[in-house]
Amino acid sequence: MTYVEDMPAQFDGVRAKLDRADQHLRTLQHAFDLWVGGETYEIVDVIDYDTGEDILTFRWVTAQPYVEWGLLVGDCVHNLRSALDHLVYALAVNSSGVDPPPNARRLQFPIADQKNAFAAERNRKLKGLPEHLVSKIEGCQPYHRFGPNPLTIIREVSNMDKHRVVPVAVSTLEAIHASAVPERDTRAIGIEDYGLGPLLADTPLVKFRFEVTGPRPSVRVDHDLSYALTLNEGTVLSSLRLLDVLASAQPFIDEALIRRLG
Q: Which of 100, 165, 195, 232 could make a disulfide contact with 169, Cβ separation 3.0–4.6 Å?
């Protein structure tokens, strides 16, 4: 049970929006798990004994349902963003004793990365709220927290979703665990990692270099690839595991915000 479930009836919208966000997230997680569980890709190992190179290349076997996943991400984040705005509205009703409360059409939960940005937004989006509530909302802003903040991610993805399907990708977020073991007539020289990021068609993952030392060269390659659903934006947000981020957003809203404000 979440804290918001124990709050007055005017917070019903917050409850409903968080529940709906969770439904979309569960649907997305299930769809991604089913897709991952299938034979979706292969890793092709091409060894060239003439050049002394062994390249592992990633290749998709089935199409990736990026549009479907992007729509589900957008639906989830839309409800998380709405839950924040419902929260501000409910606080205004609770403190003013009237519904609609003063400034009802402009009430919104501000999300600012800098203190001066929050100051610029507070009079428009939080006008009519008691100062102690405004102060608590200010204390929840991303600039008080080091590293990626769920509020920042909710804002950025919500803004994307207003204009386009949220761009997502299946990406490597950590180096592939791979090794080339000389079995016969070869000597290992080095390894070249092609880096992290979205897995596209025929994406090179790693290159091994070796020296042929005899007439019957043989190399055994072992590998283990991990990947995750990410944003496909080319920003720092693209380095985050999107499903984990969305899963953490709801308890963050419930515990860090609603408990603090309610």
A: 232
Note the pLDDT tens digit of each residue in 121-136: 999 999 999 999 999 9
Rounded distance between C-alpha atoms, residue 39 and residue 33, angstroms: 12
Q: Pairing relation of β-strands 218-224 and 177-184?
A: antiparallel
Strand ranges of the sheet holding 186-193, from the earlier edge strand across to the other edge: 41-48, 53-60, 203-212, 186-193
pLDDT digits (tens, 9 = 90+) for 184-223: 999 988 888 887 899 988 889 999 999 999 999 998 888 8
Of 199, 197, 203, give the one whose Cα is nearest residue 173. Answer: 197
Range of the domain at 138: 3-261
Instruction: Dump the DSSP string for 71-121.
Output: HHHHHHHHHHHHHHHHHHHHHHHHHHS-SSPTTGGG------SSHHHHHHH
Question: To the nearest 10°, the Cα dihedral for 160, 227, 177, 223?
Answer: -140
Q: Report d(CA 44, CA 55) in Å as an integer.
A: 8
- Number of domains making up the chain: 1
- Global pTM value: 0.88
Question: Residues 254, 2: contact at Cβ < 8 Å?
Answer: yes
CA dihedral for 8, 11, 13, 16, sign (positive or negative): negative
Contact between 236 and 196 under an 8 Å Cβ cutoff? The reply is: no
